[in-house]
Amino acid sequence: MEHSALAIERRLARDSDQPEGLLRITSADWFASYVLALVLSELARRYPLIVPEVIAGHRQFDLSRRDADIAFRIVPFTESDIVQRRLTTMSYGLYSGIGIPPPKADGKGLA
Question: Quick one: which of 5, 8, 13 has its CA closest to 50?
Answer without folding.
Answer: 13
